[in-house]
Structures are given as structure tokens and as C-alpha cells.
Fold this sequence. Notes:
By secondary structure, chain A is an alpha+beta fold. Chain A is 24% helix and 12% strand.
Amino acid sequence: MRKNLYNVGAILKGLSITFAFMFKKKPTIEYPSVKKQHAPRFHGLHELRRYADGKERCIGCELCSSACPANAITVIGAENTPEDRTSPGERHAARYEIDELRCIFCGMCEEACPTDAIVLTPRFEMADYRRGSFIYAKDRLLVPPGAGLGPAPDERPNGIPSDLGRVAEVKSTMDIAQGYSATNRGETLKTQRKGLAP
Amino acid sequence: MIAFWILGVILIASAMWTITAKKPVYSVVGLLAHFVALAAMYLTLSGEFLAVMQIIVYSGAILVLFLFVIALLSSGVAPFATGIDRLPKIAAPAIVVALAGLGFAIYAVGRSSVAATSGALTAAAAGPVGTAGVFGSVDDFGKALFTTYLLPFEITALILMVAVIGVVTLAGDSTPYAATEKQARAVRKSMREAIVRGGER
Amino acid sequence: MQGAIDTLNAAPLWLVVLIKSAVLLLVVVTTFAYAMLFERKVMGWMQLRPGPNRVGPWGLMQPAADAAKLILKEDLTPKTADRLIYRLAPFISLLTAFSVYAIIPFGASASGPWAIGNVNAGILFLLAITSLGVYGISLGGWASGSKYPLLGSVRSTAQMISYELSMSLSFVGVLIIAGTTSLDGIVNAQLHWWFFITQCVGFVIYVITAVAETNRAPFDLVEAETELVAGFHTEYSGLRFGLFFIAEYVNMLTVSCIATLLFLGGWNAPFGMTVVPGIVWFLIKVATFMFFYIWLRSTLPRMRYDRLMAFGWKVLLPVATLNVIATAIYVAFKG
């Protein structure tokens, strides 16, 4: 009998807990309208970058392709001609394709790239209706010539400092409405380097 | 009067369906319709309490148990035999007798004054349905049950009680009786062991 | 107001009943829709979620979206199903759920026409109609022609029969004190003391059995997802499932109305706050009871079936019987 009465107490306790929970702050982020700020080094969709003069960084060396554990990257290189110099070096990527369905977003391509051409951005919204749409070629990977330049991968916290392609001015390569602000990212990086942010 | 004829047709149709339906569950549905229509019939006769009890007791309790048993037992069983084979041997004389009785009843009703009967009914139904003092109300029914007819009522209750006890004794629980928790535990243990043994075999 | 009542009294009875029924049907269906939204919201809050908020402001159009979805969904009938009864069952459920409202008074009959019909044996009529609700579930489960629905329907039958007894007995205590079976009379008897105080044991029993009768958590063994997929309505889809769904919520509403009428003083205002009209008090009480329902659902885990049965027969029924006897003795000695 006593035990049963304790059970009644337990039920009342449970009821009080759920009642109190009604008024707690909800941790839900209402995604499409509110977007979570990702960590600066979040691994999302790739991006092929350019130098400040608008030339492509990629030299078509295929190191990313061989570093890729998921075999997601296909690179076909071609010689630069004096009339049409796509990149500063001797070669450039004639075709550069990433199958984002195969990609595991590990960032090995980024590590392997000798010219910091391929970079993983924090953008993650790439849902689509057809499998074919997930093969991203240069037309979608390459930053537009006038769009400015994102920070180099080694400018990130704990990154190895590099003298390659100093970025004078950090501009968004992404639509701000899409949720990723490169400017903000640059600010974060700066404060972090000065030791101002945790 | 219109209600009477409509309900009458529903009653007879549902009753026919109950006895001729192919599947037992259809019979239950037929009987359910019958009970509800019967309750409605009682209502038109201002037998409010009777109507409600008809539904609570027959539809709400007894028929549900029928359905329970039928749903459990007959879901895999072939439907009843239908057609002429289903009729028992006594059907032909029974039908003759029933028709004769019906004929006599119609004759008798025809002879007596129909107007008088319906007049009595109207008189009984006068006043708002179910108020105390009006025929068929809860008050009157209760008073009659617990004063005038108390003895038959109690005897009926006793008979039902005896029936319940009889059923429990007959159907019974096969588990051995255990007076204390300790004994009960011993019984459960022996039953578990029996199950384990059965599994090994 | 008085003029409107006079007009209503002058109109022929069938017209009045027809209009009242239509209005009530509309109100009940709307209430069902928002009761559902309310439940999802409250459950969400209790689980630290915001609940549905995508369709319309605060998700207020969610019921409409749900209805559109259910209507547009394909209406499947399994091959093994008994077609006739499979189709009939949701309608039985819905019909019994709605017909109760024919006699529920929402306000004092003196202050306006707040009920469709005032039956003298009101409470018995309520019991009778709600006891028919089990047919929709058990026939639907049987007719689906598959295992889980059958198990669900068998469970529902046993559960509803077991708990209906205790529920009726919890009514009896109220009836003895009120001395009438008419719902109007019962509410008027609660002018000073609401019966949930004088009949507290009966009230507790009623709350428990009401949850069990409407197959809601923690007594939702009939549609226990973890055991029976979805119980009796596993095979139903589209609008037919929707009908069962409506029936369940309308039954919840019914049970809340009965609780309000029998135990919470109906349309009587608490602490003499008669400024607010009775109908508002009635609705507030019903809403409170509905909230309690939802609260229970998001708090308590589902009961085990054998414990449910043991609890119904070995605890609730004896306690309810004792309560009736005690009330009868009290009333007899008080005179």
C-alpha cells in the first residue's frame, strides 16, 4: 500500500517536471528562417579560388584527386598557352569535377593542394532532385573573377602560415542570404589570431 | 406512426440479416443495428430508461463480448454454411406455426379497436418524455424496481451471481491456488521450470 | 439576446434542432482541429520543442494542412480485409462520437438554448452512446484482416469493457448526491460544492477511466506503436484514418465535457464570478481537462497490458464500489 502511494508521488513529480518544461527556453533553431553559425573550419561545399589578378589557382596537378579517399574528384589538366593563360603556371585544369554525393567532406583535397586552389566552404545547402546535379564542375566550383577572394586555408586557426596568395581584402564569395558570410568569417579569424576570442 | 413503420422495417431487416449473414461478424453487426433500432422503438413508446438500458446492457456489454469471442475465434474459420442446408429440420413446422400465430395476432388486433390502443399510447406519452410520474421515466422505473418488484429483482441478481460463480468454477484458472506470496512464487517457479523442460524436450 | 431566444422558441422544433445540430457539428469539428493543434503544441513545449509553427502564424493553419493531406491520400483497402465492415467501422466510430453532443448542455437551459435535447436520463444516454464507440474500433480492427489490428481491437474491447464498469460506478456516486439523472439537474446540484470535492474519489476514478476509455496514453494499448504498429487503424489510410482520428479527439472532448458537467460544476462560475457567462466557464473547464489529458500523455509511459487489467479490476472497481456504498450511506443518513 505504501509502495503504491509512493508511485502516486512519482506520477505527480513527473507531471510537475513536464509542466516546468513547458516554460523552458526551447533550443530549437528554426532552420530555414534562422541559420546556425557554423564553426570557421566547417567542411562544406568546395570552392575553386583565384589569384588577386583573376587567374585560376588550380594548376591541374591532380594531387587532390589522388588524395581523395572517396575518389570523388576528377581533374583533367591542360597546357597553358601564351595567348590564353588560365593560371600563372604551365598547366591548368581543363576539367575539374567533384561528385558531391561521393564526397565525405574530409578536407584532404584542401590539404593536398599545393596552390590552395581547392577550399571547403561552410556552405552545406546543396539538396537537389537529380543525382546528376551533384556533380559539380568548374562552372559551379570556380569563384567568379570579380567576386574577390576568400581567406586562404592556412589563414585559419592552427593553419600553417603560407606566403602563397596573400589576400588583401576579404570579400564574400557567397550570397549572404545563403547564410554564410565570408566577411564574418574573416572577422572571426582575425580576432582569434589576436587571441581575443575563445 | 411513421417512425414505427420505419423502425419496424429496420428491425425486421436487421433481424433477417442477423440470421442469414454469411459471416458471424456480420450477424453481430446486424444484431447491433437491431438493438439500436429497438432502443429507438422504446424511445418512441416513451420507455426512455428501457431504451437506454437496452443499449448499455445489450449493445454495450453483451454484444461486445460476442464480438470479442467471434473476432478471436472465427477470423480464420470458414463462414457458416448458407442456403437451405442451414435450416434445421424443424424449420418447416416452425414456420407454419409462426405464420399461424402471426395471422391470429393480426386477426385479434384487427378485431380490437386500433384507435383505442393508439389512444392509450398517446395518453401515456403525454407530457415531456421522461419526467417523473410519466410512464417509463427513470424515477418510476427505479421506484417500481426497488419497492414493488424488489424480491424478483434480488432473486434475479442472485441467480446471475450464481451463474457467474459457476462459470468461474467451471472455466477456472488452471494455476494452482496460492494463499501467500511465498507459495505463489514457488508456483511460478515450478511453472517456469515446466516451460523450460518443455523447451528442452 | 432575449429576442433571439423568443424567435428560436417560436420556430418549429425540427428546424431549431437542425440549426443547432449544424452549428454544433461545425463547432465540434473546429474544436477537434484546434484540440489537435493544441495537443501538438503542448506536447512540443513539454519536450522542449516549439511544436508545429510552419503553416500560418503560430501554426494556426496546421489543421487545414493536415485535413488536406488526409483527404488527398490514397484510401487503401487491404486484400484480406472484409470490405463492408472495413468501410463501415470508421463511420460507426464517428457517429457515436458525434451523437453524444445531442444531449450535452453547454449552459443553463434557463439562460438560453444551450443544448439540442434535454433528456431526463441524460447521463445514462451518455453512457449508452459512448459504450457503442467500441464497435468502431473492434470492428475496424477485425475487418482489416491482419494481425496487429486484430490484436488492437481485441485489446480495446477488453479494456473498454473493464473500465466502463468503474466509470459507470464513478457516475453513480454523483447521481446519488444529485438525486437526478438529468445533466441539467446534476449541474444545478453543484451550485455550491462542485462534485470533484464532495466526490473526490469518484473524480479520480473518472479521470483514470476516462483516459482508458478514450484509449489515450498511458492507456493507449489499443494503438501501442511499440507493440502493435498502430493498433486497430494500422491498415487504414487517408480519409478513413482521418475519421478514426476525428472520433478519437471528439471522444476526448466528450469525456472532458462529461467531467465538466459531472464533477467540475458545469457552467457554474467559481467563487461567485458570475460576471463571465456560464458558457465561457464551461469552455474553460473543458479546455483545462483537455490540457490535463495532454499533460498526462507527455508525462507517463504506457502501461503494461496485464497491469492495466489488474489495475482496472482489482483496484479501480473495488474502490469505485466502496465509493458508491459510502456515498449511499452518507446520503441515507443525512436524509
